[in-house]
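Dear all,

This email documents one entry for the complex benchmark we are building for the journal club exercise. For each entry we list the sequence lines for every component of the assembly. Then comes the predicted three-dimensional structure of the complex as a token string, followed by one or two observations. Please use this as the template for your own entries, and keep the labels exactly as they appear.
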Amino acid sequence: MVELLSVRDVGKTFGGLKALDGVSFGLAKGEVLGLVGPNGSGKSTMINVLSGVYRPDGGDVRLDGRSLVGAKPSAIAAAGLSRTFQNLQIFGGLSVRENVLVGRDCRLRSGMLGGVFGLGGSLREEREAKSLAADLLEKVGLARFVDAPPSMLSYGQRRLLEVARALAADPKVLMLDEPCAGQSQAEADALAVLIRALAKTGIAVIVIEHNMRFVMNLVDRIVALNFGRKIAEGTPEAIRGDEAVIEAYLGRRGHAERR
Amino acid sequence: MRGAGNRYVFWAVALAAALAAPLALTNNYQLGVAHQALIFALLATGYNLLLGFTGLVSFGHIALFAIGAYASAILVVTFGAPFLVGVGAAAIIAGLVGVVIAMPALRIKGHYLTLLTLALGEVIRLLIRSMESLTHGSQGFSGIPRPEIFGMSFRAGVPLYYLLLFALVLGVAFVWRIEATRYGRAFKAVRDSEIGAEVCGVRTDHVKVLAFGVSAVFAGVAGSLYAHTMRFISPEFFSLGLTITLLAMVLIGGRGTVIGPIVGAILLISLPEWLRFVKDYYLILFGLAIWLCAIALPDGLAGAAARLLQARNSVRGRASLRT
Amino acid sequence: METFLQVLLSGATMGCIYAFVALGFTLTIAAAGVVNFAYSEWVTFGSYFGVTFAVILGWPLWLALGASIAGCIAIGWLFQLFVFTPLEGRHFLTSVSATIGIALAMQALVTLLWGPYPLTLPTFFGSSAVQIGTISVFPHNLLIIALAVLIIGGLQLALTRTSIGLRLQATAQDPMAARLMGIPVRRMRTLAYCLSAGIAGLSGFLVAPLFVVTNTMGFGLMLKGFAATIVGGWGSLKGAVYGGLLVGLIEALGAAYISSEYKELIAFAMIIVVLLVRPRGLFPERIAEKL
């Protein structure tokens, strides 16, 4: 397997607390990876390290062989790693379309004066970006909201807007942090179909999700974390039977479900 | 698209009214008030790029205005440069200082940034006052000539009015255009969620420096125009009180909108004239008006108007979504 | 050596005043997230109340002090009704413009009520200095320092040792959780506003004999108070006290040994230097941003 993204021995400590402790995994083109674990296991920290919000204390993250450690989040996005947020970071003062266009910004080249004076190149670039944004909004099912303010969207729709915004950067790796939170089962199913379609085009997807049914049915491979360490890795079937995972995560959930 | 059409009509009417205004401004005093309103509208329009669009609360903006005024005055009076050189230098120098101020602003956020810029602004003002050989210190700089461009004199009130209006129209057009570009979006994205913008691939450091720099250029040009309009400047004029007035212009007019700062500037410059009859109570009424505006219209006059329009449109919009 | 002690004493005196101002300003931020740019005018009113009661009405000074504090608390209570409550949870800029508007109105009101000319307020111990060893000391300065130690120490004890203080702290840290725990958040905030206003009245009364009473005096003090809150750390009560002392001492030392001409620059320079080194002040609050 040729690794698109390789995470090697990544650690992150917050005031003595090891949020991530020597975690390694790889990701291939077109693969869908589930990152699971109980609350506080380090899933979100991992996403924040990968996207450059946190700088890891140790280890290395490479995309296409190029190290991302120490790069600014914007540079990482430009390198091809996009993400959504568990706590939504929608731009409330921009329209739905403009939100997606912000996601495109790292691919745009026109300068300020070109835009202000309406020079040909920047006009064309703007037109192309707008049509791409329209396509992406169509893809996530928000086409009728293009000119609306995001406040008109439901919580679940805002998650989809973040997905469209992340896709606007033409990512090689897409990281979705709890994409199903606040979504109905029908919306979650539609999202699963979308993720599979994206994977087919070669985008690698990392999904953090509490909805186990969603994860088990969607992903190719699972990495399970607990207390900042990787406790298991494998296909959904293998993870379902893994003692350590059941102990840390599924066990409690299974227990809760039996009640 | 009807909304966009209405907007063009609105701006056309506003421009026509501004062009015709000198007919109604019958004496030099009223013209003088109009001059100030135009200059402050330009200053507030630039400040709004920083405050309203990018969400960076700087309390040091008046210092950039002062730098523009002094740079132009010194070049034209002391060194005999033509007016256009004075304006150009004012824009460049203020812009550079704005970029320098932006550097610490990249690390310092929120309230800390506000008070850092306040301190920087005051330090700049005190420096201007202490550099007596250049700036004539606290007694002020007088004898600044009215603008003259390629032999065309703007000494009289009405031509000067049109020159200032021309500058304002250029400035507003610039902001209006930039709002629709990637830069306008990036400014607002930084305002609404800085971390979100950065992670989406917006180089937020770059965007902030740009916002500081562009709004500083506006301040520099406005400062130069102010110096050559009033013909006298002093360090005391560019005090914290003026910072507060500028802030009030943008907030009362409506931050983050193109029209807001213009409305705010015209209102706050002409309000003293309208409230002349209340005499001693003027400042009390003025202060209470700011308080009332803040509580009742948190998005300013333009924001309140936009909300009214949006409420009307969204009723229509929802109807059309259903079909 | 004598001059050094002399300078230190006057620096500590002003430092205590700045600490009071910064503390009162920070209290409303910590308790309700409201930034009160009209705090300068509360202090000004404290001074003018003092002049009114002690000089114009001829009351005994202790009584006048009490009445000034009460007067400021009344102002604080009015602010709660008309300014703070509508502002809670609003954008920072909304707080800024509303309180600045009120500050302008109050400043104009002072001129209207008390006239444009500076007034004076006597001290408790007359205006002559006392020799202690080789340095001459104004008893009023010692009173300021003693009161600062007493009140700030008492406040510290009250906030950390009494149940009402702990409830106030809980309200400040998480109003929602405090409300769920049955703490009357509304009343706790009222308490914080009144405390803040009382401190304004006290500092206005104490600072007035050091200078003359004018309608802009509060504003000058407030600038130093800002410097103190920034140097100490925004929203931190401990930071406000240390920041105030630091600003007072450095200002006095700078004026004595560098140049008194640039005295007003010192507070601003301190803001700039501290922030460049520590972007969140010397005693930063811990803020975690969850993504």
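Observations: The beta strands of chain B are 141-142, 148-149, 152-153, 232-233. Chain B touches chain C at residues 51, 57, 104, 107-112, 115-116, 118-120, 122-123, 126, 195, 244, 247-248, 251-252, 255, 280-295, 298 (CB under 8 Å).
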